[in-house]
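Same chain as my last thread, 174 residues:
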Amino acid sequence: MGEKNSSDTRVKPWGNAIVKDHTNLSKLLSLLHLVKENDIGEFKNDNVFYKDEGPRKEKSLRPTPTHLRAIIDKIVSDDNFREYVRSRDTSTSTNKEHRENLFKLNPETIEKAKKGFHKWNTFEGLSFPDLFIENDKYIVLVEGKRTEEDTTGSVSYLKNRSQMVRHIENNALD
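reply #2:
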């Protein structure tokens, strides 16, 4: 990040322009041939989220319980994945102790992990799309890129998890 941070140089100016004049969203999406100009519908400024030093901040989207359970199931059933996750684990204290018991396939810990989510058994956190706009017709998710050719194709624990799929899936709870 820094002077070429796309959130600051690309997304924030668009976010500001959209908040100032909502028709700018239709104009942007019509350039991409995603909607016809002026077909986006109405939305409130309170439903526009992006990184800004003012009152606006990025929308946080929680992972689905189904996805979090799938990670635990994969940790339990796949030795290679379990070792991969264990090698990336930076948790401390009680969280580390619980996770180690999970990695060692302790039956009580596995049962506890599958019953509910706590900090120690949540292996994927919130996602933050660069721009999030919602109304009764659309949800617009934007991930601005400046130096990367494509969206991120992996997240901390999952080598093949698309950043955009993660945002879309995480939005299912909101």
